[in-house]
Design brief:
It is a single chain. The chain is mainly alpha-helical and 91 residues long. It has one domain. It is built from five helices and no strands. The longest helix is centred in the first third of the chain and has 19 residues. The model has no long low-confidence stretch (mean pLDDT 88).
């Protein structure tokens, strides 16, 4: 399951859903322009916010799932091979 879909499947309040979704949308836009470092920063912002929402708006399981997927994406974005070849990161 892709990260945007994962987060979209959570029963979150509108404000939390919008805020987390905006960070993922910014990362997606950065990837489309091949700004991988910027995309990684947006994913980092998503991970940080997910951390502040753990045990509040997000359950611990939701937090672990979304942060795990986010970290996988960050790894792909910082992978030197990924930066020099076509990248296919799915949210």
């Amino acid at each position: 399951m892709h990260l945007i879909s994962t987060v979209g499947s959570y029963s979150l309040g509108a404000g939390t859903q919008t805020s987390l979704g905006a960070k993922l949308g910014q990362a997606t836009s950065a990837i489309r322009t091949r700004s991988f470092k910027l995309a990684s920063q947006h994913i980092g912002s998503f991970i940080n916010e997910a951390g502040t929402q753990a045990s509040k708006a997000l359950t611990v399981d939701q937090y672990l799932e979304s942060v795990g997927e986010g970290r996988q994406i960050q790894f792909a974005l910082t992978c030197q091979e990924c930066l020099t070849n076509t990248i296919d990161v799915h949210f």
